[in-house]
Amino acid sequence: TDWNGDGVFGSSSDQYIELWNSGDVPISLANWTLDDQVGFGSQACIFGSDAVLDADERGVIYQADSGIMLSYYYGDEINLFNANGQLINNLSFGANISEFDL
User: How many Å separate Cα 68 from the centre of its chain?
Assistant: First the structure.
C-alpha cells in the first residue's frame, strides 16, 4: 500500500508517526520537535509556526516529509519536545523482524 500517495510502493517513505490530540482544546505545535533517538539516527523534524492539532485531531507525519527514519529491525524511539525543549511524550520499541506493523 502506498500510504502517503507518492507513487512508491513498499518504500520506507511510507513509514509514519501519528500524533493525536486527545484533549478538548487545540494544541499549537509551533516550533515543536519530533525526533527519534536524540543525537543518533535521523535529523529532527521541527514543526512550522502554523502547526496546530485541533481537539481530538490526529496528524500523520510521513518519513518522506519529515526525514525521520525509524528502525523497526533494531528498535528505536520517538520523542516529542515542545518549543522550550521539554519532553512532552515519547515511545520506545524493541526490535521487530516481522513484516507486521507495530
Answer: 7
Other residues' Cβ atoms within 10 Å of the Cβ of residue 29:
23
pLDDT tens digits, 18-62 = 889 999 999 999 999 988 876 666 788 889 999 999 999 998 887
Q: What pTM value is reported for the model? A: 0.75
**Strands of the 76-81 sheet, one edge to the other:** 45-46, 33-35, 76-81, 87-93
pLDDT digits (tens, 9 = 90+) for 56-87: 999 888 777 676 766 666 667 888 999 999 99
CA distances from 64 to 5, 17, 60 (A): 11, 11, 11
DSSP annotation of 23: S
Among 1.20.120.450, 3.40.50.10420, 2.60.40.1260, 3.20.20.70, what is the CATH number of 14-93?
A: 2.60.40.1260
